[in-house]
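Notebook B, p. 112. Complex prediction, attempt 2.
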Amino acid sequence: MPALSYIAVSFLVVPLAVVVLLNLFPKKSADRIALYFAYFGAAAQIASSAAGFFLLGAANTHEYDFSLFWNIAKAGSERFEVTSLSLVILFCIGFVSFVSVLVANETVKTKKGAFVSLLMTLMLGMNGMVIVTDLFSLYVFLEIVGISSFVLIAMFKTEEGLEGAFKYLVMSSLASIFILTGLAFLFMQTGSLQYSELGMNALSMGTRSEGILVYVAFVLMIAGFAIKTGAVPFHSWLPDAHQSANTAVSVLLSGIVIKVAGIYGLIVLTKLFPQSAAIKMTLALIGVISIIAGALFALRQNHFKRIVAYSSVSQMGYILLGISTGSVLGLLGAVIHIFNHATMKCTLFSNAAALHEQTGTLDINEMGGLQAKMPLTGFSSLSAFLSAAGIPPFAGFWSKLLIIMALWTGGSKVFAAIALFSSILTAAYFLRLQKKVFFGKPSEKFKDLKEIKGSVGFAQILLTAVTVGTGLAFPLVLLYLKSRGIL
Amino acid sequence: MGVFGFENILLLVGFLSILAGCYCLIRTFHILKIAIGIEVAMKAVTLFLALAGYVNGKIDLTQTFIITSIVIEVVVTVVSAGIAINLYHKYGSMDIRNLRKLKG
Amino acid sequence: MEVIVYISLGLMLVFAVMAVMLHSITKSAIALAAASVALGIVLYELGSVWAALFEISVCSGLVTVVMISAVSLSHERKTELQKVYNDKKRMSFLPVILIVGGLVLAGVAIWSKFTLPGAGETAAGSSFREILWNQRQADIWGQMIVIVAGSAAVSIMFKERD
């Protein structure tokens, strides 16, 4: 159907067109109109992914192959493919990019043209990752995402930004080396890296040496993707990179990059090799350790963005637990949690931008009692906190419920219990954050503080509305999925 | 094609190169040396890919993999050199022990 | 044929260890280029002709140029280097670690009677050119976008403004 083919091709063509068009303008005028181009690009992605999801449902299929200017029918050639899962992730990518541009309106003051070019390249890389059907192409687009993120963190040339970008570069290169070595070993065994051929190729663990090769490949690939996700014990780059970047870039990093780069790779692995119990157990273990360790680290921090970064580590553990069950329910819970967590993190980082703009500091020991002066920021932060802790009717309750149910029925009951009780830890560090920043007595120097206006305020209102709205409307979503036959 | 065969020695040299590269990454104090360590490890990965193609019979497909990964490797090296030069302008030296602003 | 490969592998390992252990970045870059040439010879003998060409021209040429230009843009004095970084002494364990690691891996391989799978013969059919341009189009798009991102990075990071 032609509409779907236009939508599918637009995921790659629109960001590329924005980059090319933006760089045709001379420098000064490019800086003025750059953000409008970015708004257009992100909004176009949101609209086309939503339309694509419903069109795909109407056509009663689950996937759609397409290509970009080449002949797809030749044997053995690559193809791009959109499935329902990838359309949901594409929607998240567009949504987080839109919020990032809203925040960038306030925090990015110079080099706007360069920021938008790199943002579009990042979107291209992430879009590419979810629509390819070959493991090596996945690696290529993963590197595009990596290169764009390094430059986005380092481009404002602050000392902290350069240091964070450098640490991220070292760990990310290590992850790339692991993933590529794992791919080489897998290729030695199977002879092809396309999804269709890997799925059909029954990995015979017949002779012992072949088994060793494939297991080493799995270990390396899981380690590589776990480094990219920021799961414990490979998380050491995450707080530094997310704290030192410009807040608009932190929104992108915590909101979508760690998920698409790391979690989506692990989703692909579990989908390609569903009969391997070792992968699932490893993912579940990493997930549980991440939840607990991330929460414990977050309790001891004093910098607002650092607490939020450690909270990302902790929530990634929940998503890993959801994937590790291998069932449809678990995968659904994980994907919904990807969306909810993106909303949460965008809210929290918008609050960080608002606080930094108005008070000039991000040290929570210096703030206090800001609830009266900045009610919008306080309320949106409260809604993000309740959603993360899993309290109804906020959206986080539903996704956590799905993950815990999937663990209880399909996976291990012990992990389900641990996931349930670690909500207390999540609530603990968020409560500490709320108390220190917003409640209590306001200090003298914040006498003339005003609430933030403009695009960051709008972003906060939008995100709170999405959080509450998703939570209230979620039963309808479940009914719709049941009618489509997914659940 | 026994245990001491041709391919196993290639595999061994590849693993040793990765070990050398990662050791360099961990122990050095100089920023550009870290980029050199990453380069040494990527050479080992190229060797692994070529070995996979030789063993499998699909040499042409492997060559496309190697060429693409070399392009990516060059761009990553250029970006890391850019960050290194900017760090030098900020701190006056290339020592990574100077980078202690982000703690905890 | 095998003798050439073994000699080149040994040279590559020696040059790589030298690149890690030397303390002057210029000499390290030259050692890395020599290791690239050795690796190119190995690739050629394994049958990957185009990959050998790319490796020798790009890795030993371009990367060396990048490293040496980065060093020349930072003007560090040589005498200070030896006192501060002391790379030769810090990394003096490396040959020992490599020999120990090599023995451990060889032991594991012998214990498990490890051999690699494989057909060993070239699959007839498409040539390299056809595979690259007709079958791996997504990789070509990926490479173009990488180069776009890289050029954006260069234009931002290497600017000498205030």
